[in-house]
Write a structure and sequence with these properties.
The structure holds 2 protein chains of 2 kinds. Chain A is α/β, with parallel strands linked by helices. Helix content of chain A is 41%, strand content 21%. Chain A has 2 domains: 214 residues, Rossmann fold; 161 residues, 3-Layer(aba) Sandwich (Rossmann fold). Chain A has a 6-stranded mixed sheet, sandwiched between helices. In chain A, strands 8-7-9-10 form a 4-stranded parallel sheet, with helices on both faces. A 3-stranded antiparallel sheet of chain A has the order 11-14-15. Chain B has a single domain, classed as ABC transporter involved in vitamin B12 uptake, BtuC, CATH 1.10.3470. The termini of chain B are far apart.
Chain lengths: 390, 307
C-alpha cells in the first residue's frame, strides 16, 4: 500500500513537472458546419505558427487544444468552460464569431486567464466590458466599415443602402459605416443569421431605393451566396457594391472555379493583405501557400498572429507563467513580429493599426487574390474606447 | 406603395414558394402515403445540390448536369428506402425520427468528407446568369424565372401524375387507406420505393436549382426541412394540392415580411428598433401562421379525404 502511494505521489509530481514545462493554449474556432470554412483556414494558420516556432515558446513546449464552437454561442461557451476548468489552459484564444465570443468571455475573464480574440470584435469588449486580461489580435467590428465610410466619402458616394446579418458583428459593422459615411443611408436590412442565404427580397429593396452604393457584410459561405445573387440581379453598374469581410481568400478560388469574373476589381477594407511587405508576413504567406496551394485568409493571418503574440508574452517573462503582470505588459507593448507589421495597442487593448483599401486582382500566375491599392488611414479609432475603464 | 417593388417581391416570393413546393411535395408524398417521417429529406436536397454542382463543374454544363443528377438522387432515394426506411415502416414515428435523424448525421458527414466544408459555387451558362426585363422598370434575374417555370411545370406534372395516371390512383389510394391497397393485390413495396425515389428526385432537383443562388453547402438541408414541414402541416399531410398552396403562401409571407415589415414597424417604433425587430418577427411569421391554422383546422387546409 505504502509503495503504491509512493508511486502515485511520484506520478503526481512528474505530471506536475510536465505541466510546468509547457504552455497550454485553448483555441476556440468553428470546425463543423458551414462556418468550418473559416475555422479550417484558421487552424491552418495556427498549425503553421506552431511549426514556425518548432513547437516551443522559449523553453516551454506548446500544448495547444482546439475547441469547436459549432457556430453556436452556447456550444462555444461549453467548450470554453471545458478549456478553462478541465484543461486549465493558460491562454484562451480564437473566436471567429462575435456572438460566440460574447457568450464565452465571462468564463475566461472570471477565471483570471488571458483571453485573445483572433477575429471577433464586438463593441463591448473594447468598451464597457474591456478587461486587463483581454486582448484583440484583430480589430473592432466597427473599424473596417469606418474605414470604408471614409472611402465612400472620397469616392463621392452620396447615398447608401446597407444589408447585413442580424447579430452582434452585423450590427457593429452597420454602426461603423454609418459613423463615418457622410451621405444619406436610404435603408438598412438586417437578415436572419446564419440561416438566411437568399437575399432576393433585400436586393430588390436596395435596387428600388435608388442608392448610389450598396454596403454589405456577409462572412463565410453567406458571402459567396450574396455575391452570386448580386451578380444575377445585374446590379453591378447601377448599384456598386462595397463590402466588409465578404470576399476573401476562401471564396476567391471558388469564384474563380465558377468563372465569376464580376468579382475582379471589387474593393474592401482590411488591416492585412498577403502582399504586405514585412519579413514575418512574407514567410507566413510563402509557407502557407507552399503547404496548402492557396492564399491565406485574413482569419488565418490573425490566428497566426495571436499565437506569436502569446509567444512574445511567454518569452518576455522567461517562461514564468505565474508572472501575469509581465506577460500583460509584453502583450500591451505589441512587441512581437506581426504579419501586419508594427502596431500598438490603445488603452482598451484594441490594436491601433493602418487600414488599407484592398482590391481583387489576378496574381502573376493567374490566381485570384487581393492587393493593397491605398492606405486609407494610419489608424481608425476604437469608437468604444471612451467606455473602457480599466 | 411602390408597385414595381411589390411586383418584384411577389415574384421573389413565388420563386421561394415553388422551391419549397419541390421539397415539400416529396415530403408530403412520403409522409402521407408511407406514413413515414423522413427528417433526412433535407439531406437528400443537400446531396442533390452537391451532385449537381460537381457534375456542373465536371461537364461544364448546368442543364446537362441537372438531367444526370436528378436520376442519381432518385437512385439515392431508392437505396435509402431499401436499406433504411423499409426497416422502419412498422415501427413507431419516434423510431422514424431517430432513424432519419441518424441518417442526417451520416449524410451531412459524408458530404463533409467528400466535398469538404467549403461548399461549391455553381457556374451558370451566360444566358441564365443575366436578367430579363419583364416590362418597363421590372427587371428580374433569369435564373429565378427559370426556377418559377420549373416549379410550375413540376407542379403541373405532379397534378397530372396524381390525378390522371394509374400510379397516381395508387398513390391517392395509398394515402387514404394503405391496408386496403395492399389487400387488393397491389405490390405495396414497389409502390413505396417508387414514391420514395420520386420524393428524393424532387428534393434533389430543388437542391440543384438553389445551388447556383446560395451555393451548395453542408447544413443547407437542415434549414429547408423545417420550413417544408411547416408547409405540409399547413397544407394537410399527404395532400399535393395542400403542399402547393401551402408552399406558395409560405414563400409569399416570408418574402413580403422581409420586404415590408420594417416599414410597417417604423410607423410605431424607432427606425433602429424596427430594423432589428423586423427580421426577427418576419422569421417567426410562418410559425405564427402554422399555429393559427393548426388551431382552426388541425388537419391542415386540404387534408386528404378519408383518413
Amino acid at each position: 500500500m505504502r509503495k503504491l502511494l509512493g508511486t502515485a505521489l511520484a506520478a503526481t509530481m512528474l505530471t506536475g513537472l510536465a505541466q510546468a514545462a509547457e504552455v497550454k493554449i485553448g483555441f476556440v474556432t468553428t470546425l463543423t458546419t458551414g462556418g468550418a470554412v473559416i475555422g479550417n483556414d484558421i487552424k491552418k494558420g495556427v498549425d503553421l505558427a506552431l511549426e514556425h516556432m518548432g513547437g516551443k515558446m522559449g523553453d516551454l513546449d506548446i500544448n495547444l487544444i482546439f475547441g469547436d464552437d459549432g457556430f453556436k454561442p452556447e456550444t462555444g461557451k461549453q467548450v470554453t468552460d471545458k478549456l478553462v476548468k478541465q484543461d486549465n489552459v493558460d491562454f484562451v484564444a480564437g473566436y471567429i464569431w462575435s456572438h460566440v465570443l460574447m457568450a464565452s468571455r465571462k468564463t475566461v475573464i472570471d477565471s483570471g486567464k488571458f483571453m485573445i480574440t483572433a477575429n471577433a470584435g464586438p463593441g463591448p469588449v473594447g468598451g464597457k466590458l474591456c478587461h486587463k486580461n483581454f486582448f484583440s489580435a484583430s480589430w473592432m467590428n466597427d473599424q473596417g466599415p469606418m474605414a470604408m465610410g471614409e472611402v465612400l466619402n472620397q469616392k463621392g458616394v452620396k447615398s447608401l443602402y446597407i444589408i447585413a446579418p442580424n447579430y452582434a458583428a452585423g450590427k457593429g459593422m452597420v454602426a461603423g459605416v454609418k459613423r463615418t459615411f457622410k451621405g444619406e443611408v436610404l435603408g438598412t436590412d438586417m437578415t436572419t443569421w446564419p440561416t438566411q442565404l437568399d437575399f432576393s427580397a433585400e436586393l430588390a429593396k436596395a435596387k428600388a431605393s435608388g442608392a448610389d452604393g450598396l454596403f454589405v457584410f456577409y462572412p463565410g459561405k453567406a458571402g459567396g451566396a450574396f455575391m452570386k445573387q448580386y451578380q444575377q440581379a445585374g446590379l453591378k453598374s447601377s448599384l456598386p457594391l462595397y463590402t466588409a469581410f465578404t470576399i476573401d481568400a476562401l471564396s476567391l478560388p471558388k469564384f474563380q472555379a465558377a468563372g465569376f469574373t464580376d468579382v475582379l476589381g471589387s474593393q474592401f477594407t482590411g488591416h492585412w493583405d498577403p502582399n504586405l511587405d514585412n519579413a514575418q508576413n512574407k514567410r507566413f504567406v510563402a509557407d502557407f501557400r507552399a503547404q496548402h496551394g492557396a492564399y491565406p485568409s485574413p482569419y488565418a493571418a490573425q490566428a497566426y498572429d495571436s499565437i506569436f503574440m502569446i509567444k512574445g508574452a511567454v518569452e518576455a517573462v522567461g517562461g514564468d507563467l505565474t508572472n501575469q503582470d509581465g506577460m500583460r505588459a509584453a502583450m500591451e507593448s505589441a512587441n512581437y513580429d506581426s504579419v501586419r507589421g508594427a502596431f500598438s495597442y490603445d488603452s482598451s487593448h484594441i490594436p491601433v493599426q493602418p487600414w488599407y483599401l484592398r482590391e481583387v486582382v489576378k496574381d502573376s500566375d493567374g490566381n485570384w487574390t487581393t492587393k493593397i491599392v491605398q492606405t486609407i488611414a494610419q489608424s481608425v479609432e476604437n469608437p468604444y474606447a471612451a467606455d473602457c475603464k480599466m | 406603395m411602390d408597385y414595381t417593388l411589390l411586383f418584384v417581391q411577389v415574384l421573389n416570393g413565388l420563386q421561394l414558394g415553388l422551391l419549397l413546393f419541390l421539397v415539400a411535395s416529396g415530403l408530403t408524398l412520403v409522409f402521407g402515403i408511407l406514413d413515414f417521417v423522413n427528417l433526412a429529406h433535407g439531406s437528400i436536397y443537400m446531396i442533390g445540390a452537391f451532385i449537381g454542382a460537381s457534375l456542373t463543374l465536371l461537364l461544364g454544363n448546368f442543364l446537362l448536369a441537372v438531367l444526370i443528377a436528378v436520376p442519381l438522387t432518385g437512385v439515392l432515394g431508392y437505396l435509402i428506402e431499401r436499406f433504411v426506411a423499409r426497416q422502419l415502416y412498422d415501427k413507431d414515428h419516434l423510431d422514424h425520427v431517430l432513424g432519419t435523424f441518424g441518417l442526417i448525421l451520416v449524410l451531412d458527414t459524408s458530404a463533409h468528407i467528400i466535398w469538404g466544408p467549403a461548399g461549391i459555387t455553381v457556374p451558370l451558362p451566360a444566358w441564365l446568369d443575366g436578367q430579363v426585363a419583364l416590362f418597363t422598370g421590372v427587371v428580374f434575374p433569369t435564373f429565378r424565372l427559370l426556377i418559377i417555370s420549373v416549379g410550375l411545370a413540376v407542379a403541373a406534372g405532379l397534378f397530372w401524375l396524381v390525378n390522371y395516371t394509374k400510379l397516381g390512383m395508387l398513390i391517392r389510394a395509398g394515402a387514404s387507406n394503405r391496408t386496403m391497397v395492399s389487400a387488393l393485390g397491389i405490390d405495396i413495396q414497389t409502390l413505396f420505393a417508387l414514391v420514395f425515389a420520386l420524393g428524393a428526385m424532387l428534393a434533389g432537383l430543388a437542391g440543384m436549382l438553389i445551388a447556383p443562388i446560395t451555393t451548395a453547402s453542408i447544413g443547407m438541408g437542415g434549414q429547408i426541412i423545417i420550413t417544408a414541414f411547416v408547409v405540409i402541416i399547413i397544407g394537410g399531410i399527404g395532400s399535393m394540392k395542400g403542399a402547393f398552396i401551402g408552399a406558395i403562401i409560405i414563400g409569399l409571407i416570408d418574402t413580403l415580411g422581409r420586404s415590408f415589415l420594417d416599414q410597417l414597424f417604423e410607423l410605431f417604433m424607432s427606425e433602429s428598433a424596427a430594423e432589428t425587430a423586423a427580421p426577427a418577427v418576419s422569421a417567426m411569421m410562418i410559425y405564427i401562421l402554422m399555429a393559427i391554422i393548426l388551431a382552426v383546422k388541425p388537419q391542415g387546409l386540404f387534408p386528404p379525404k378519408v383518413r
